[in-house]
Write a structure and sequence with these properties.
194 residues; 7 helices; alpha+beta; four-stranded antiparallel β-sheet; 2 domains
Amino acid sequence: MRNHTSHELLDVRVCLEVDGAIKHWLVASIPGASGDKAGSVTLNDGLLMKDAEFLAAGDLAKETHAAGLTDAQAKVFERCWQSDFNQPGTLSWRRTQKALDEMFELKLTLPAGMSSETHRIGYVLVKNIDLKRQAEMEDLVQKAVNGDADAEKTLKASGTAGAGALRRAVAGEDLPLKERMKLAQILGDMSATR
């Protein structure tokens, strides 16, 4: 997993079906990108969640309440987080306070002498992750690099599965820069047609 943002990703949780079994991984954090190098973590068996690592009911609500949410907001946040996270084919993470402040600017005009303190808490959820087509898409990427026009056309028509394979290839260091630039152009063409 790669983090191309400048902010650390917190409590990264991945829930996937692998060989007929549901597996949960927990990564405490993925560092932000540094220069042109993305922060990265490789999911492995050492990161598989154990029963004790699943948040006990109320723990996240307490934590988010302490960070500024009302009691009711904290309970809703925890309920959503828990139900979303336990769905197969999902990836979720919490944003840092700094990232939220930069992304969602809040402008307040207060009378002189008054000050305010704002706390935001949010998480990102990616659904419908399907690894079954990953090998097929990566094969198409390799064919497209070698000039196969049919593979390029199929990639462009494959939606998020193709876009994901292209992004991984462009972000990786396995291919020469010229080939990565070619794949970036295909990815750009896909974005332009949406």
